[in-house]
Amino acid sequence: MYGLFLRHFFLIKSSFPRILDLIYWPSIQIILWGFISKFFSTYSDYYNNTVGIILTCAILYDFLFRSSISFNMLFLEEIWSRNFTNLFIAPMKISEIIISLVFTALIRTLIGLVPAILLTSPLFGISILNLGVPLFFLFLSLYIFGITLGLFVSSGLIRFGPSFENIAWSSLFLLAPLGCIYYPIEILPEFFQILAKGLPLVYIFDETRNILVNNFVNFENILYAFYLNAIYLSIGISLFYFSFSKARKKGSLINMGE
Amino acid sequence: MIEVINLSKSFQNNKAVNNINFDIGENEIIGLLGPNGCGKTTTIAMILGLLKPTKGKILINKKNIENHRIELLHKMNFISPYIELPKKLTVKQNLIVYAKLYNVKNIDQQIEYLSSALRLDKFINRLTGELSSGQKNRVSLAKSLINNPSVLLLDEPTASLDPETGNFIRSFLEDYIKQKKISILLASHNMEEVKRLCTSVMMMKNGKIIDRGAPSELIKKHGRKNLEEVFLKLARAEHEF
Fold first, then answer.
1. Residue A146 CB contacts under 8 Å (≥ 6 apart), including other chains
2. Angle at alpha carbon of residue A84, lines to B11 and B194, rounded to 5°
3. Span B50-60, mean pLDDT?
4. What percent of chain B lies above the pLDDT cut of 70?
5. Rounded distance, CA A174 to CA A184, Å?
6. Chain A (208-247) residues lying within 8 Å, Cβ to Cβ, of chain B
7. B36 and B61 in one domain?
8. CB contact under 8 A, B86 and A255
9. pLDDT at position B226 over 60
10. Are B177 and B29 in contact (CB under 8 A)?
11. Would you say residue A8 lies in a domain?
12. Closest chain A residue to the Cα of B143, Cα to Cα
């Protein structure tokens, strides 16, 4: 019994990322739910249709989450199955790898999300389609950001190998409090507001709530989200190329997964 | 054809490969022998373009892999016991995936040929993860030949196989090279395999090629009974090279 305890204790003690991982999740959950609670206690009569707004935002956030995770999963599955090297010795350009991952991730995301969207109507009487035509732009914007995050994480996986895996799972949760999914940006402390304004999520979710509460579309928010997405996507693609080049110098493409 | 010219690779201060030169002509199998960590895998990784050389160059059919990586990979392939095919896909699905990745024209015909030649027929529709190590090895070999490569890199292709399967793979490779125009680099710890398949052998140690020649020549030159004894002599000689 003590031996088994020691086996895990030694593992935790010797790995800073593992210790960080143990601290990370409770901290993020508390911060996120802290901001949500603060919002509802301060502005309890803010929404007429609380369930509708929360559920719509939850579905949109899940779409972002699934698209990013789907992108990362496609990479991680190659590492786990020890097929990674086979792929990188196949005659595929980096651009072709990115494009195929983008489309495959979209299919994976939709397979998971469509049933959830269909369930909200009979269960809660809510349809995300109430957002109308702007819904397409909101989804597209979220998908681009999800893919961008996927590119950042995959770049880390190429460069640092499977040890970067934990980042793949935690990256999106780190953005959840700053993304202002369920509350307006004003709820965040001032310093966090500055950071949050650099994320397209703030504009996407602000616009979602705006459409549902005010029944009015502010295309400025949607456009601003696209501008930011274009910047992050360019950085993400460049980082992916850079990581591949670094991995070829350092040798991390060999025996990946071991 | 493979030409390796003044090739070196350093990781920080460690010279994994130190100024090696060799070439492999058409229809030639060259063996690469050496103790663990001598630089065999690093050399193979550089030939495949997975690793950027610190110095020197690799020409495949007269083209530099660094400048024509994607174009050349169409005609190259690799097998190693350290990499696998997705376990949740059937053998046939895996072969189709790689045939598509290598832009193979007659996919069905090619899979049928490999399936028959490597005796995959009985388990072609089974999940790859459910196969024995001998069967998996034959599937990996089929994957490595799916694009009819003109350059094939084999890293311990018969490691951990039973003698019968190992012998089958070796016989297959002997026949294959007679039928196709191909250059093969074989890294192996199995001296009998190297002696049987290779026209020439390179002995590697500490990142350098310390000796080379036909297996029988090396045995004679070092006054030993077989290639294994030559290998041991060279591997143990701390200061000779």
1. A63, A64, A65, A66, A67, A68, A71, A105, A109
2. 70
3. 95
4. 98
5. 17
6. 245
7. yes
8. no
9. yes
10. yes
11. no
12. A86
- Looking at the domain assignment, is residue A37 inside a domain? no
Set of chain A residues whose Cβ sits within 8 Å of the Cβ of B51: 248-249, 251, 253-254
Phi, psi of B3 (to 5 degrees): -125, 120
**A236 CA to chain B: closest CA distance, Å?**
22
Tell if the CB–CB gap between B70 and A91 is shorter than 8 Å. Answer: yes
User: What's the total number of domains in chain A?
Assistant: 1
> Closest chain A residue to B47 measured between Cα atoms?
A89
pLDDT per position as a tens digit, A103-122: 999 998 888 888 888 888 78
Range of the domain at A105: 50-250
Read off the pTM. Answer: 0.85
Using 70 as the pLDDT threshold, list the residues of chain A that sit under it: 17, 44-49, 168, 255-258
Q: Note whether B230 and B181 are same-domain residues.
A: yes
Q: Is residue B241 part of a domain?
A: no
C-alpha distances in angstroms, B145 versus A142, B98, B105, B236?
42, 10, 14, 36
Are B50 and B128 found together in one domain?
no
A163, part of any domain: yes
Residues B97 and B47 both lie in one domain: no
A92 and chain B in contact, CB less than 8 A? yes
CA distance A226 to chain B (A): 33
Q: Nearest-CA residue of chain B relative to A80?
A: B86
How many independent structural domains does chain B possess? Answer: 2
φ, ψ of residue A252 in degrees (nearest 5): -75, -5
CATH number at residue B64: 3.40.50.300
Contact A254 B51 (CB under 8 A): yes
Taking CA atoms, B22 is separated from A2, A40, B106, B127, in Å, by: 56, 73, 34, 40
Across the interface, of A78, A91, A93, the residue whose CB is closest to B102 is A91
Q: How confident is the model at residue B122 (pLDDT cuts 50, 70, 90)?
A: very high
The reply to whether B30 and B45 lie within a common domain is yes
Give residue B208's domain range. 2-75+149-236
Pick the residue of B83, B140, B155 with the most A CBs within 10 A to test the interface with A by mutation: B83
Q: Does A83 touch chain B (CB under 8 A)?
A: yes
Residue A34 counted as domain residue: no
CA–CA dist B93, B97 (Å, integer): 6
The answer to whether residue B223 sits within a structural domain is: yes
Residues B55 and B18 occupy one common structural domain: yes
> Which residue, among A219, A245, A211, A247, has the nearest Cα to A56 in the 3D structure?
A211
What is the pLDDT at residue B150?
94
Give the gap in angstroms from C-alpha A79 to the nearest C-alpha of chain B: 10
* Shortest Cα–Cα distance, A38 to chain B (Å): 47
